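step 3/5: co-fold with adenosine-5'-triphosphate
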Amino acid sequence: MTILTLRGVGKRFGGLPAVDDVSFEVARGQVFAIIGPNGAGKSTLLRMISGLTTPSTSEGIWFEGTDLTGQRPHRIRHLGVGTVLQTPRVFSSMTVLENAALGGIFGSARRRAQTEARASAMEQLALLDLADKASWDVDALNLHHKRLLDLARALAGRPRLLLLDEVMAGLNPAELESFIAVIRRVRDELGITVVWVEHVMKAINALADHVFVMDFGRELAAGIPAVVMRDARVVEAYLGRGAVRDA
Ligand SMILES: Nc1ncnc2c1ncn2[C@@H]1O[C@H](COP(=O)(O)OP(=O)(O)OP(=O)(O)O)[C@@H](O)[C@H]1O
Ligand SMILES: [Mg+2]
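step 4/5: write tokens
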């Protein structure tokens, strides 16, 4: 069953197309990876789904049948779409639990009572192995744990679709393994669909059910990872321009 459909989605910056006539469908329960060289338009595409960037053209961005085109980010979040970007958004001078609870209070349509939000946040922290740090000052967390906390906050809003942009960039090998396991749990145990922009090929190969490759704002190739990664056009787009950041 399809949870997200894009048709004819595009974005121009100063007349130059960053995303050009992109269409795809995401099946419920999938990890749908979007890859491509630097500047291919991946983040712009993701930001259009989350409402952070307004499309220049769109026949539709349908989430469970509702067109998200032109809707504001908080409305899209309330409809059930969570977003985690490369730079973690954490509120300083608050504890880890207080940060996570903000997702439950502001992330969903129904404003939950503080206590309910905290209980829900505690559940998400446990799922992400952050429960032992619940009372820590958020500024004491490293990048890996800040990303996990941002994810916990997105999950506290109970999304059915999660948008991730390069959440594995800059992690060491052990942190990478742990983050891969977390995304797998999000898909398999919580049943959340994941649309994920990433450069870390090891993680893509370990997790992606479907890969959508972009180059110059357009679709270059799409399909299962084993086939797409061997596509001559994909190899050329990466290796030909030396754009792979990770082995
Ligand atoms: N706010 C903006 N204003 C002007 N140009 C922009 C803006 N955001 C992105 N662009 C341009 O749009 C194109 C696509 O950028 P985008 O960030 O979507 O690429 P990306 O695939 O995410 O790249 P990377 O892998 O480096 O993150 C680039 O040429 C970029 O310079
Ligand atoms: Mg990007």
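step 5/5: annotate
Residues 13, 18, 36, 38-44 surround adenosine-5'-triphosphate (ligand 1) (CB under 6 Å).
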